[in-house]
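Section 5: illustrative case.
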C-alpha cells in the first residue's frame, strides 16, 4: 500500500517533504494566477465585444478595429469588473436564499410549502434574468456612452423596464444557450480533466 493511503489529511500533509510543499505552493500560485488572468481577459473581452458591436452597427460596413475595441475594454476594465462583481454577489445571495428556502419549505412536505417554493424560485429566476440584462445594458452605457458607473446602472434599469417584453424573449434564448454551454463544459471537464488531475495530484502527495 503506498505511503499515505488511509491517513487523515492532516497527517498526510504533515508527512510531506519540503519539495512537495513547494510544488503545492507553486500549483496554488499557478491556479490563482490563471484565475486572475481569466477574469482580466473575460472582463476586457466583454468591453471589447460591446465596443466592436457598437462600431459595427454604427457604420454597418467592414469589420471593427480589433485593437481599438480591445483598448476600449481595457480603459473601462474597473467599471466592468465592479459591474460583474456586483452581479455575481447578488446572484450568489439569491442562490443562497433559494437554498435556505428549499430546506425550510420542502422539508415540511406540505403542498402549500412546495407551491410557495415554486413561486419563489420563479421570482428569483426572473430577478436573475433581469439582473443579467441590466448588466449587459449597463456595460453598453459604460463602454459606448462613457457614462459613470451608477448613471449607467440607472439608465440600464430604465431601458429594461421600458422594453421588458423584448428583453425577456431574448433572455430565454440566452438562458437556454448558457445552460447548454455549461452542461457541455462540465461534461468535458469531468471526462478529460478531472480523472487525470486527481491521479497526478495523488501521485505527487504519495511519492
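Designed sequence:
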Amino acid at each position: 500500500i503506498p505511503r499515505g493511503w488511509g491517513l487523515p489529511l492532516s497527517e498526510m500533509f504533515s508527512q510531506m517533504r519540503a519539495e512537495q510543499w513547494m510544488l503545492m505552493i507553486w500549483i496554488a500560485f499557478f491556479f490563482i494566477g490563471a484565475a486572475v488572468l481569466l477574469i482580466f481577459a473575460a472582463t476586457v473581452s466583454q468591453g471589447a465585444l460591446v465596443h466592436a458591436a457598437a462600431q459595427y452597427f454604427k457604420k454597418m460596413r467592414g469589420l471593427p478595429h480589433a485593437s481599438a475595441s480591445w483598448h476600449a475594454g481595457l480603459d473601462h476594465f474597473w467599471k466592468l469588473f465592479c459591474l460583474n462583481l456586483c452581479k455575481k454577489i447578488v446572484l450568489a445571495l439569491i442562490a443562497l436564499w433559494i437554498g435556505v428556502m428549499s430546506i425550510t419549505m420542502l422539508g415540511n412536505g406540505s403542498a402549500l410549502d412546495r407551491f410557495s417554493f415554486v413561486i419563489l424560485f420563479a421570482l428569483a429566476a426572473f430577478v436573475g434574468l433581469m439582473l443579467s440584462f441590466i448588466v449587459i445594458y449597463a456595460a453598453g452605457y459604460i463602454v459606448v456612452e462613457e457614462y459613470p458607473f451608477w448613471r449607467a446602472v440607472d439608465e440600464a434599469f430604465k431601458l429594461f423596464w421600458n422594453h421588458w417584453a423584448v428583453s425577456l424573449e431574448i433572455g430565454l434564448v440566452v438562458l437556454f444557450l448558457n445552460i447548454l454551454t455549461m452542461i457541455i463544459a462540465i461534461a468535458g471537464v469531468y471526462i478529460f480533466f478531472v480523472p487525470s488531475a486527481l491521479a497526478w495530484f495523488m501521485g505527487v502527495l504519495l511519492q
